[in-house]
Amino acid sequence: MSALALPARWPHRAYPMSDGPGQPLMAGAHAEDSQPRDVEALCEQFALVCESAVDSLEIASALEFEGWSDQAVRERYGASDVFTLAEEMYLRVQRQPAEPEPLPDPWQASKVRPALHGLLYGLPTVCFPAAAGLLTGPSVLGVLVIALLTSWAMSQALAYLGYVRLGQTDSVQAARLLRAGMLAGLAGVMLALAVAAAALPARIPAIIFGAGVGAYMLGATVLIVLRGERLLLFVLAPGVLGAASFLLLGRPPQLQHAAWGALAATPLLALALAVVRTTRDAGLPALGRGRHARTAVAAGKLLAAAELRGALPSALFGLLAAGLLVFPVAAGLPGDRGTNTGALLVSLPLALSMGAAEWALVWFRRRTQRLLRTTWELRAFAIRARLVLLAALLQYLTAAVLLTIAVITVAAETRLVQLHWTALPQIAAYMALGGAMFLALLLQAFGSRIFPLVTCAAALAFEVAGRGLGVSVQLVTCTELLFVLAGYAALVLGSAVRHAC
Amino acid sequence: MMTEGTYPYGFGGVSVWCDQLIRGMPGYDFHLVSLVASQAEPAVWSLPDNVVSMVRVPLWGPQPAAPAVSWRGGLPLRLLRQLIDALLDSSADAQRRFGYVLRELFDYSSQHGSLSAGLASDKAVRLLSNSWQERWPDSDRPAPTLHDAVAAMQLLDHSLRPLSYAPVLADIGHAVTNGLGVLPALTAKWRYGMPVLVTEHGIYLREQYLLNRRSPYRWPVKALYLRFMRHLCAVGYHEAAAITPGNVYNRRWEERLGAEPSRIRTVYNGVDPAAFPALTGEPEVPTISWVGRIDPIKDLETLLRAFALVHQRMPEARLRLFGSPPKGREPYLQSCRALAADLGIGEVATFEGRVENIRDAYDAGRIVVLSSVSEGFPYSLIEAMTCGRTCVATDVGGVTEAIGDTGLVVPPRNPERMARACLTLLRDAGLRRRLGAAARARALEHFTVDGAINTFDEIYSFLGSGHPLPMAHPEPDTGVLSGDLPRSQTAG
Predict the structure, then answer these.
(1) ipTM attached to this prediction
(2) Which of A43, A97, A115, B247 has its CA 20 to 30 A from that of B360?
């Protein structure tokens, strides 16, 4: 006899037996007596299951799950088995499926969060003019550009990886990855700066400032991904308040060192809090049952190669976005002192407007999701989705223009800068760039990652190639980028399958 | 060997079983194909040396060999239409046509690459919503929207990803589950003529029905997806050269879905007797022990309510629960603690967490209780039996087959019955000793890991040599105490 055969002895059930040696625990009510008397009553008890069952097997599953066995239904209802009983119940009850519970809307982000993000992106801009004393000497711009480009690229890639891990509801792994990624990214920025320091005749304070920019960006990325925006406000407080007071007091030389100290506090705090936060979140994972402990490998590889490849477009996009933003500032206007104050000034409202971009993105997502649920025709969906896209873009641009007007008005009133009408084309170019960045983010959120990369790279190449020709090149390039991305987005986002989530 | 969501990426009974089987058969080389949620999942088992290759098939990551946005969606319209028709048609023939289109999809994919671009395309969505509109009954049922069509095609796309992977060449395709896990075995059968063996611990389809009761999708999507699963499971049974359920109870479902009875062999899980020697003493205090994952399917509410009744009658009694909640189930543990406190047994019913040596958990109780509402062939039960501990267990899945007449079986979700059975045993040391010895004898005879491995060795050699399984010795029904047996127990 092989082991294929069944055990020879057969089950002995306790419940058909008499009460045995123990006394009955409860007088009267046995569970069976409280069970439905006939199939009709059973159908009532299982009404919800029967009304939304797709076939009789679903009812059979539910019956078995509630403890009904073939024997029990035979004794109680005379059905030959659970399946037969389920078939009868399926026929008796009219289908009236309940609508599923509405899922918690992932796009129901509070209105505060995007605004807070805008503030978090924009506030650090205040620190740059306060650090002017540090940023002297040759090649300062070169150092700053390198610091900005590398840290944007690193933080975009880091944010991508962090969100992917969080999307797998793996907060422990996400925290481990974010911490390791932050340190690796910081090492990358430092390396780039070290190379710059060796190659360029830059002064040490500028290099340190560049390192501070990188540290802040990476620490802030970790905190934002882990939803620690409030912590980040705390991180920004010393740098921003210090820098703002220093500027408003008219840059008194005796306070210069205090201001620099305040500036230095921000990146250090960002790093420290990011490390604390990730260490707290990456507590030891709970493993399964004891008997597996010996064979189980404690934890997997930190990062799969595929994930790293997936982060590459994000890193490149960060690099290109930073390039498009910073290049006009660095390239300067012909005949100017080297920096371009108009460009520097507009980059503040542009950073603030990224909050509005997030808000418009969420709005677009929610509107198109609603559209999917109320539309039956693909063609109608495509047309309406494009209208929603246009509305989202206009919302963003309106917000960006309003923010720009507000910032310029404040700057002009406080006499921080003097602005001429000649700056208008530059401002317009930045608005177009903002719109293009919004569309690029939108496309990336919908899984189209290569097209925005290619077009942004082309745009940057144009600007670099035409750097001698003044602001018109920037204006033309950014406007074209905006239109090309808008056309592509209209094409791609009109497709219903793109909106599956 | 093909797994889904288990070995070597997850914990639990099925993974233990896979590990035992592979380690127990060093004479065989194993190629693993493992369906996982995403590319990034870490393996939690270290693989034995006789695992010679491993392919990971992520169902939810980016699509394999993703082509850029494909406006035409390579998949021929004819195939898409056939697939959708087979899923919306409720005639008896639909099942056969589904099997046919599945194979066509595989053939197409092996020539043209990933199916994703075709399945998750506007073209497919348009076809599905048109077919729905044509067939939808004018009743109260909610009509499908575009969102439903998109969601349904996405689900099909992800579920059919295994078809786009190159089949593994081996002598036998052993799928450790039906459903999606059987797809890689089917592709190998279609490509290389490899015989398919399907092992089921629980019933895949039943679990799908239960899972989808709380589906976030609207009814049309749920109906379409469950139809897909039902067809797929039936194809799995139909194509299998042999089916080995982990208990007799499961045969009912397999035969219901069209499995050929002569191809079904029940193979019970086994434990290593050396790891679970007989326990000698009993705890001083009358204690009930429970071992497992803290999970709603284990129905700890009934256990706690039953123990509250036991405690009324026997105030010195204790309940000790060993195990931890899986990730995401911590709130369930909290609710159980709260229930224990409400019942006034917070002090005497203790949650002990994981134990290093699981045998200590069985040692901690005079009896071991299992309160689950659903089980295949639970390891905790046969481990406790091997230790010589008497069990009280709910009548679910293969529990009665495991316990036989060596313990007490009670209906699920019935605290009074469970309490009465516990008291019976706690009060009668002689009965405990007698049943405990019988339980150990029964486990050593029928539920050893060597027994299970020998059986699979036998099945592998039959299938590998191209023979069908020898006509089974009809599964015996001698010694039946109650007249109630699953219908497959007819002696022949």
Answers:
(1) 0.85
(2) B247
